[in-house]
Amino acid sequence: MLKYTNEQIAAMIAIQNLHKSYQIGSNSLPVLKGIDFNVKEGEMVSIMGSSGSGKSTLLNIIGILDEADEGSYHLDNIEVKNLNEKIAAKYRNKFLGFIFQSFNLINYKTAVDNVSLPLYYQGVSRKEREERALFYLEKVGLADWSKHLPSELSGGQKQRVAIARALASDPKVLLADEPTGALDTKTSYGVMELLQQINDEGKTLIIVTHEPDIAAMTKRNVELKDGLIIGDTIINQVRPQLHV
């Protein structure tokens, strides 16, 4: 039986002895080989590693998009295990906000409609959905673009809409998978400055990235290799220099 330390019990995310394999034909491919990983409320953590290191698989398990084969995962002291899709979706909506490299916006919906979409699935009234969506668009600096379609926005603006959408349901944790991967350097730093501000306000962030300069803008670097954590370091956070 797994036993948790006081630090793990107090963590927003507490993962112990996590294993995950995928079946490739008749062979089993181990991807995570015994991960112990805790994140406290309010942390800003980057997960780094080369392709195949297991970082996206770990993020998918944290995001309740995949399930471990072995080990345990607690999110805000709730065990995540053997969930049917209805309960998994409920937990995702309640606890988690997602930011993707490809933005994942709906092309035929305006910015405000994209941001309000998670609230629709939570049963929030139309009036409140729009008010909250506009609030978060203003927060990311896009209030004047609320009626624009994604095709009318730059890459950086699309990512800001995606961040507003992730924030709209006030999740406990934001999960960002290569959030700057499709952006140029200046735009990437602008997005990271915004994510730092959100973290400064108390939101917990986990960011998967392969870019060392992006990882340097978080407060803790976790490095994966061959399905194992080989480094976990608190760092002095770099603030992007945008106005030089």
Characterise the protein shown here.
By secondary structure, this protein is an alpha/beta fold. The protein has a single domain (2-242), classed as Rossmann fold (3-Layer(aba) Sandwich), CATH 3.40.50.300. 34% of the residues lie in helices and 27% in strands. It is built from 8 helices and 10 strands. It has helices at 6-9, 55-62, 85-95, 111-121, 126-139, 155-168, 185-200, 212-215; strands at residues 13-24, 27-39, 44-48, 70-75, 78-79, 96-100, 173-177, 204-208, 220-225, 228-234. A 6-stranded mixed β-sheet has the order 6-7-8-3-9-10, with helices on both faces. Strands 2-1-4-5 form a 4-stranded antiparallel β-sheet. A hairpin with a 2-residue loop joins β9 (220-225) and β10. The longest helix is centred in the last third of the chain and has 16 residues, at 185-200. The termini are far apart. The relative contact order is 0.18. The model has no long low-confidence stretch (mean pLDDT 91).
